[in-house]
Amino acid sequence: MVSADIVARTQELPHENTMKIPATFERNETVRIEAFSDGVFAIAITLLVLGINVPRIRELGAGGNLGSTLIKQWPHYLAFVTSFITILAMWVNHHRIFSFIHSTDHPFLYWNGLLLLFITFLPFPTALLAEYLLHPGARVAGAVFAGTYVAIAFAFKGLWDHASKNGRLLAENVDDREIRQITMQYRYGPLMYLAAFALSFVSVGLCVGLCLCLAVFFAVKGWPTLRSAALFLPSFQRKR
Amino acid sequence: MVSADIVARTQELPHENTMKIPATFERNETVRIEAFSDGVFAIAITLLVLGINVPRIRELGAGGNLGSTLIKQWPHYLAFVTSFITILAMWVNHHRIFSFIHSTDHPFLYWNGLLLLFITFLPFPTALLAEYLLHPGARVAGAVFAGTYVAIAFAFKGLWDHASKNGRLLAENVDDREIRQITMQYRYGPLMYLAAFALSFVSVGLCVGLCLCLAVFFAVKGWPTLRSAALFLPSFQRKR
Amino acid sequence: MVSADIVARTQELPHENTMKIPATFERNETVRIEAFSDGVFAIAITLLVLGINVPRIRELGAGGNLGSTLIKQWPHYLAFVTSFITILAMWVNHHRIFSFIHSTDHPFLYWNGLLLLFITFLPFPTALLAEYLLHPGARVAGAVFAGTYVAIAFAFKGLWDHASKNGRLLAENVDDREIRQITMQYRYGPLMYLAAFALSFVSVGLCVGLCLCLAVFFAVKGWPTLRSAALFLPSFQRKR
Amino acid sequence: MVSADIVARTQELPHENTMKIPATFERNETVRIEAFSDGVFAIAITLLVLGINVPRIRELGAGGNLGSTLIKQWPHYLAFVTSFITILAMWVNHHRIFSFIHSTDHPFLYWNGLLLLFITFLPFPTALLAEYLLHPGARVAGAVFAGTYVAIAFAFKGLWDHASKNGRLLAENVDDREIRQITMQYRYGPLMYLAAFALSFVSVGLCVGLCLCLAVFFAVKGWPTLRSAALFLPSFQRKR
What we know:
Four copies of one chain form a homotetramer. Chain A is elongated. The two termini of chain A are 37 Å apart. By secondary structure, the first copy, chain A, is an all-alpha fold. Chain A is built from eleven helices and no strands. Chains in contact: A-B, A-C, A-D, B-C, B-D, C-D. Chains A and B meet through helix 1, helix 2, helix 4, helix 5 and helix 10 of A and helix 1, helix 2, helix 6, helix 7 and helix 8 of B.
């Protein structure tokens, strides 16, 4: 099982100039970071279910009714669905960002690490919101929930701003219009989540509702340009 | 470590026409979605064991007997095995579907997201059934359990129907007979799980038994055509 | 990002005969099953730690000493280490088996599914043994622990026997001596674990000790032949 | 889907001499071990959040305030962040080490297994520290926490020392200066963590603070040379 790397290394010599090799190596480094991040996203999204409380028999009591108990804990399902869609949207947008980036540097890696920190943390505020949505602590739980989303939105913005400033880490033949569009989107993202955070002090219901809408919005906005990575194909192929 | 992509990009020019490149790019996008889904399947199937209750010493009491306690919680093992086989069958069928699909669009991605949502949710109804199978709440637990399976079956049907309608997202040289066979299978799947759901109001035992049978059936049905992806090899190779 | 598959498909035509293509396709199918299994192994091995009890402050009591409490729960660490080495050894041996296998069929897939079922189940008997090793239920816990290992050993034997019978699923140019050596090893494996199971009724300590030794033995035995997959390189390369 | 291996095998014949093939095969073996380790790192880092306690409503009491309860459990967040950065730093350094290594042998695999054992164990001391940092058991919890880090540091040192001794498992064209730099770093690593361990008997706060600083230090030190794997490109390319 001789790895494909060897083929690549041996064969491209007549085709590619040596100048491009460091670039492709860094592309490879990006791929590795993306694979690790993907694993973290997949695990975090699957761990969310552990936050849904399984009512124990002894807690239910003698005259307890399982059906109504399950219905009463609807905040658990709401929190689960909101965080599920959010992590899915983040995964999509993470891929979208990485499809434009062809090299890495230190600050980029720290921003990505910060982003993963908040994502692995997400099951905690999700479980907290599920536990307290119908109780006196609801505002605090909502604030922690929306606050984590604010932190994620800022980490995303930091990651993108660092990578895209003067096209620092971007590929050369990127569509400027799309870059500006993403920059715009990440400018409003943190503001919207800050609004959700503020709403948690007025109405936790509205706060969670806005978070859910934003997750759906970012999931939908992220997909289209997932495809646009095709722009990186050598230009003569695209011109066709 | 120069990635294989580069080789591919450079070398195929003389062999392939440029028209095919967007198609292959989308194929690549499909692979990425499949890899993320695979991760979610693998984690969900391994988390099921956390739903099996480890009887604590203090709960056992002084005269408690571990052996009989373990035997008495057989519903935990039954629920574990049923959900294990179901997720395995879903993984197999997910691959089977994806082996026919060569491009993606928005609704397809939403159907896949919905499917993953129900799959990551599965450990909850599994633990619920394990807790209540021998208790008054059994019918509710059985209905939630079978209901989740109904939802999964409909998500699978939606995913396939969207992809296969007029061959929308399918590869060009697909065997029509097999496509029709899958369509048939996904037409009856949701009906069978609806029957299991209805059975939960009559007898939870029959309900779970039917779910177990269906899981085994779909696991067995899924494997054979896993191979049939060979159909995608260029036709002159298949004709041989 | 044009996938390497395309290159492979286009370029090998002049080099390889078409007869080999179905074989290589099935090889690819094996790889996919192996990747899913690898994910399950990695998750199961990491979930083991959740079985180690974190003594809560309120359980410790006023005069409680954390140090002695942690030392007293040494069975948790023993069970953790034993199961960790066992899963690691199983991963190594799973790779070893798959390095000889070049095609799959239905019964092979069922054997592999059965093996994964027992592996994902392993955190449960591990936590059980940890909880009861120093308590009256120790023999039952030890029997469940060793019994799960017996089941895994039989699943491994079934997987290998099915694949190797008349060289059914093996590659063509396999070293017969090594095949016989593995067959021998898998013949004695279940017997050794049955002995550990029997020992659990005499002394749980000896039972767990034997399981630990067997795990180390299989981990050590598995590695060497991991390399021998090099045998599959075309013979003129090996003769060198 | 013919795997890229086949292409590699067929095509490199005119380019590479047969002597290199066993070497590249072993490189491939290294990749497989690295992939499994990566999975374990990703899961362990995501499981840490399960150690953060979600205060239950009934524990909060009637007059309980969620906000102050959440603030009071700041040791949970501190332990979470410290272990998160540590695992991230270990992942980075693991890649760094593996980027220099081109073959494996038995002791190397045992050292790697030992390292993974301590890493999967890490969620336990993390949860322990979170529970006891503000309670009488703090010193014991701090010692267990720092002690696990000492074990990890020694496992890393053992892995590297074994691989780099006389360049045993290293690639041929490695930059000696960098090898010496890593050797130096891994010589001081265990000493620093031993200092943190000793500090736990004086002040748990200082102990955890030092662990946090070391994690940040190793994360930062690890990244730069992640890139230096470019050194492995054939020398005529590097000279450019």
